[in-house]
Amino acid sequence: MDAFFVSVELRSRPDLRGKPVIVGFPAERSVVLSASYEARATGVKSAMPMAIAMRMCPAAIIIEPRHKLYYQVSGQIMNIFSSITDLVEPLSVDEAFLDVKGAIRRLGSPLDIGHMIRARVQSELGITASVGIAGTKFVAKIASTRCKPDGILQIDAEDTLSYLHSLPVNALWGVGGRTGEVLARLGIRTVADVAATPVASLKKVLGAAGEHVHRLSLGIDPRPVTPTRLEKSIGAEETFSTDTTDPALLNRELLRLSHRTATRLRSSDMLARTIALKLRYADFSTVTRSRTLHTPVDSAQLIYEVAVGLLESLGPRAQSVRLVGVRAEQLEPAARTSMQLSLDGRDDNWRAAEQALDRVAERFGSKTLLPAALLERARQAEDQ
């Protein structure tokens, strides 16, 4: 999808179309989650610190994220893909590989299918998608990136090498800024330069990745589209606007993050056997702790209780906390797990209550009902 979070928000804010829009929290320590192409034209990028983005684009309109809405739309996107082919491999909430060989007789050429997907996403969801078509996953990914926004690009097999060799070296997977600098010192600046360099020379400077990069420069990517790909973990984290040692504030943030994580678990029909806590201190040192449970969970209250226990196990803090995070790990499908009743029934009461909250939020919005402990933060947000 094109600028996915922003595109979803603009459905209810059409007055902002054509303007620089950033999805993220306006706090200095937050990061850009998504930026419109108008904002990107000023240099704003995803994952950029919000403080830098606001300096680069002072006219940008900041919209706070609505993660549950994005995951709902993501599910609709994946449903469209699944109606085309069973071979769908999600890469993220808004991107996937589709193997359409089996759909050609029914739906037409790959180009026809690409146009169909873009038309359905636009008409059914009100957002735009860019489609890359090629004989391998790697080249299809490059094509989809190069035709953004709202485009479609097919790279035929006979044109693959000539197209790849016209691109800068950072178009290759695994070649980031640091690797690009290493290669540039050897005079390697394009994909064609990589292809012309002996594998032994690349391995000398890049290690085992040298052979991988060389194969990609020749368009070699034998990996099939793998449709069964479960998320390995689900979680959420928050960077405080000011470093804190306040236990009440830390606990309240853990509760909020536990609800975000549990909501995503339930919407994905997943349960977690392991809960992990992440703390980053003022000096940027990071510690993590985790606990594996006898019975998998998807309840915010149960996740919160484990997270608080992990926090308390760390003992008194010698310095203030910059970031806190909660993560659910060792995921398994809820449908395959036999939910066991707890001895006093409280676990199941919490789960039933939170499922009711899900239904209310789906109908009336995510801020309709909140745990009482989170009301103070919600009021502060409204006052701002």
UniProtKB/TrEMBL annotation:
Record-annotated UmuC domain positions: 1-176
Main localization, broad class: cytoplasm
Keywords carried by this UniProt record: Cytoplasm, DNA damage, DNA repair, DNA replication, DNA-binding, DNA-directed DNA polymerase, Magnesium, Metal-binding, Mutator protein, Nucleotidyltransferase, Transferase
GO terms under biological process: DNA repair; DNA-templated DNA replication; error-prone translesion synthesis; SOS response
A single MF term (Gene Ontology): damaged DNA binding
Residues that hold Mg(2+) according to the record: D94
Cofactor(s) for this UniProt protein: Mg(2+)
Catalytic activity of the protein: DNA(n) + a 2'-deoxyribonucleoside 5'-triphosphate = DNA(n+1) + diphosphate
EC number, UniProt record: 2.7.7.7
Localization of this protein: Cytoplasm
CDD domains tied to this protein: PolY_Pol_IV_kappa (cd03586)
Presence of keyword Plastid: no
One cellular-component annotation, GO: cytosol
Cofactor note: Binds 2 magnesium ions per subunit.
Active site: residue positions: E95
PROSITE patterns listed in its UniProt record: UMUC
Site (Substrate discrimination): F5
The UniProt record lists the keyword Magnesium: yes
Pfam families: IMS (PF00817), IMS_C (PF11799), IMS_HHH (PF11798)
Family membership noted in the UniProt record: Belongs to the DNA polymerase type-Y family.
Subunit structure: Monomer.
Function: Poorly processive, error-prone DNA polymerase involved in untargeted mutagenesis. Copies undamaged DNA at stalled replication forks, which arise in vivo from mismatched or misaligned primer ends. These misaligned primers can be extended by PolIV. Exhibits no 3'-5' exonuclease (proofreading) activity. May be involved in translesional synthesis, in conjunction with the beta clamp from PolIII.
Protein's recorded name: DNA polymerase IV
Species for this entry: Paenarthrobacter ureafaciens
Lineage: Bacteria, Bacillati, Actinomycetota, Actinomycetes, Micrococcales
